[in-house]
Specification:
Layout lengths: L5 H17 L10 H7 L5 H13 L3 E4 L2 E4 L28 H83 L13 H23 L1
Antiparallel strand pairs: 1-2
């Protein structure tokens, strides 16, 4: 139930302000605490974990949906006590121990807590990466569908072009046959019409169309 020292208080309030900038009161923090810790240039993951624990103990944050929910955006006041205390530890039997060994035990305990906090953060990072992977797969699927639709549309247009080419060739063949039949009795019906003659006939037909259009306009 002790209060925080000035350095821990500054880090906790900086972390709280960063959370409030990312979500509203009652909302769940997007991302991971590690992201905010990196943004705030905290020295290590243990500093981030201690800031989160301090804010949870003072009812600013609470665990929710694999992340943390913002309960209160008010900065922690100097000397503010914990509302949610830590679970009491079982008393240890007094054993004769020297000062250095006791200090070593405390160091091991801090390292263990830091390792657990780091594992939790890594788990959240993995969950975030999996969500990004699912999003990327969905975008790739949509891109494939768009590409397939474009290819199908191109096939349809190609079929139309081939059909129009065939109809144009058929119309030209019919026109050649018709012209050959009206060229005169002295000319055999199966005589072929030359390309130059065809071009001249088409030019005359086009000129006649233009004359008709002009007469209608006048």
């Amino acid at each position: 139930m002790s209060s925080m020292n000035p350095q821990s208080l500054d880090r906790a309030n900086s972390f709280l302000a960063a959370v409030a900038a990312r979500t509203e009161v009652g909302g769940v923090l997007p991302g991971t605490p590690a992201d905010i810790g990196h943004q705030l240039a905290f020295p290590d993951a243990l500093s981030t974990a201690r800031a989160v624990r301090a804010l949870i103990a003072r009812r600013r944050l609470e665990p929710a949906d694999g992340s943390y929910r913002l309960l209160d955006a008010r900065p922690v006041d100097p000397g503010e006590r914990e509302v949610i205390g830590r679970r009491p530890r079982k008393p240890r039997r007094a054993t004769p121990s020297s000062g250095p060994s006791s200090a070593t035990g405390s160091m091991y305990s801090d390292v263990g807590r830091a390792a657990v906090d780091r594992l939790v953060e890594l788990g959240r990072e993995v969950a975030s990466l999996r969500a990004s992977l699912r999003t990327a797969r969905e975008e790739a699927r949509e891109s494939r569908e768009v590409r397939v639709e474009a290819e199908q549309r191109a096939d349809v247009l190609g079929s139309k072009v081939r059909e129009l080419d065939a109809r144009a060739e058929m119309a030209e063949a019919n026109l050649r046959t018709l012209l050959a039949s009206v060229r005169g009795r002295e000319t055999p019906r199966d005589a072929q019409v030359g390309d130059s003659e065809m071009e001249a006939i088409l030019g005359v037909l086009k000129g006649g169309d233009e004359v008709e259009d002009g007469s209608v306009g006048s």
